[in-house]
Write a structure and sequence with these properties.
The protein has 143 residues and is of the alpha+beta class. It has one domain (6-140). Helix content is 20%, strand content 38%. Strands 1, 2, 3, 4, 5, 6, 7 and 8 form an eight-stranded antiparallel beta sheet that branches.
């Protein structure tokens, strides 16, 4: 499936609360054009389970790809997970989704895990939403 057009991508971003009414409480995501065929996405998705997803993406629609990203999941002001594409070729456990991975407890900075579904070639929002819903379920079951 090809990367969405700018119009399709903006539709995805600006209709999140309507598309996912049972899981998304609010979204401040905004897409900013940096040229006719490039832009950046920034903002926060607030989930009904109390988690927040802070997102930054740089997108090149001519190439049909995300050029760079940073995704951070928070509960209040506490980081509980983040995703990045910083390559770690020395870590064989990450090869399946290289260079995409996530950081999670314990030892959030150094505990890296593969990030299935995260890609430069497709929107990551649906995967991130699913991950945040599942993460919220796991945390609430241990409270």
């Amino acid at each position: 499936m090809p990367f969405p057009t700018r119009v399709e991508y903006e539709r995805l971003v600006y209709h999140l609360p309507e598309t996912y009414p049972d899981v998304i409480a609010a979204s401040t995501l905004r897409f900013y054009s940096t040229s006719a065929l490039t832009g950046k996405l920034e903002g926060v998705v607030q989930f009904v389970n109390g988690l927040q997803l802070r997102m930054k993406e740089v997108i090149d629609f001519r190439l049909g790809r995300i050029v760079d990203y940073s995704y951070t999941v928070l509960r209040g002001e506490e980081r509980v997970r983040w995703y990045d594409p910083q390559p770690h070729p020395e870590l064989g456990d990450l090869a399946a989704t290289f260079p995409h991975h996530r950081h999670e407890p314990p030892d959030l900075k150094h505990n890296r895990r593969p990030a299935p579904g995260i890609s430069f070639l497709a929107p990551n929002l649906p995967v991130l939403i699913t991950d945040c819903v599942e993460l919220g379920r796991g945390e609430s079951s241990t409270d």
